[in-house]
Amino acid sequence: MAAVAGGRITAGVGANLIGQHAADRNQDATVYVGGLDPQMSEELVWELFVQAGPVVNVYLPKDRVTNMHQQYGFVEYRGEEDADYAIKVLNMIKLFGKAIRVNKASQDKDTLDVGANLFIGNLDPDVDEKVCYHKNRDHI
To answer: pLDDT of 65-79, one tens digit each?
Structure first.
């Protein structure tokens, strides 16, 4: 990827949001962006989100087969206040006719909600939700 707008996006964009550089990112200053149209690029996301504050990095994970982004990504800001402001002003705006979602990025497994329910049948009558949770909490 070539440098864009004075070098703000350079080759390897997103590198500190994944892999060995994950410890370098400021998780509290990173927002999740969902519902991105396939036409959106890292450059367009950068240009939009820089309106809310100084952007450090943009990362849109790509499908390994199609090399297209997976319609979500992460934007890292210089500070947590900038990320909070971006959530307030950019959440649910429409791009290419689709509303985007902007939320805090989180690696905290306790607050992760995947939006799915799991049904487990044929359990002993003594097994309730509390027992299931405590037996499986390391996997949730």
So the answer is: 999 999 999 999 999
